[in-house]
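Give me the fold.
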Amino acid sequence: MWAILPHMIMQRPRSLRSVVPAALAVMVVMAAVTPAAALHPHERDGWMLGLSYGPARGNITFGAGLDESVEIQDGVSPQIRLGHSLGRHFSVGASYAGWMYETGVVPVKFRLSLQNILAAVTWYPGDPTRSLGGFYVRGGVGLAWTRITGIELHEDEEQGHGEHLQESGLGFEITLGYEFRVTHNAAFGMSLGAHGLNIQGDIFKDASFAPFVFTGAWYW
């Protein structure tokens, strides 16, 4: 069952070059707004909780058992992070990001997931009282794990939980984002990230995913 996986998910490669300029252009436009339009100063003097969700593209190099590399143009990325400020321009905390994709037809369906849980540092380079204060860069390193679930499908039968294979390794991320402080405690925006997973296992060799997500953050 596992040997057919790369062939079922193989898609025509397409560069992220069409996505990155558009995402950066949107962030630059956000930063160009006047301080009045930015609504509230970006006060960061305590805790924050962030949630994000949006589309993502994955790239997987399978290990010796499958010996294939595939680029997957679809998928979604849920994210959550918790941090604490260290002055006006830095915060430290934990960051989780995942990528999920499902493919297959009768008689086999596959669910793939890539996940990182990381210790992260966020840098806010701009003046918190101006629109450039909404920019941030986040980097992190920590635990990565990958999972494939294979489910055999049979007509007129209830879908089961299937078999799964899971491996872990080193994960890292770099993310560029922008947020509007819409109230004293809440901000909304978007971010573009690159997440890597160095697994070196029997099923996965390495993997990456690039999420472009909408973000929400709460400060207290």
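Residues 2-33+43-219 form a domain with the Porin fold (CATH 2.40.160.20).
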